[in-house]
């Protein structure tokens, strides 16, 4: 018999950098689910993924999302965007309030992040 799922809450996830950064609700199986939280002024490093698409739904706040070092996308509450494999993405919270986006990484592949150091100058 399959194991029944457990209820989880975004407010209770452990974030990579203590009180900010990504945190996972589920990081096993066919897809990974979680959220990324950026405080005002925070940046999340430029990176891509070799195999999975990482999709984001903005829950609150506003942020810049840079794609492949050339395309700036302004994100606000309710916006959705998917980053296919190989597309670099860099987040920066330029607002005076926290930014949080729910994310899905599919397929679920551990160790799929490819760091690509870069910071926009504008």
TrEMBL record:
Coiled coil: none annotated. Pfam families: Cupin_2 (PF07883). SUPFAM superfamilies: RmlC-like cupins. Residues 36-104 form the Cupin type-2 domain. This is Cupin type-2 domain-containing protein. It comes from Gryllotalpicola kribbensis.
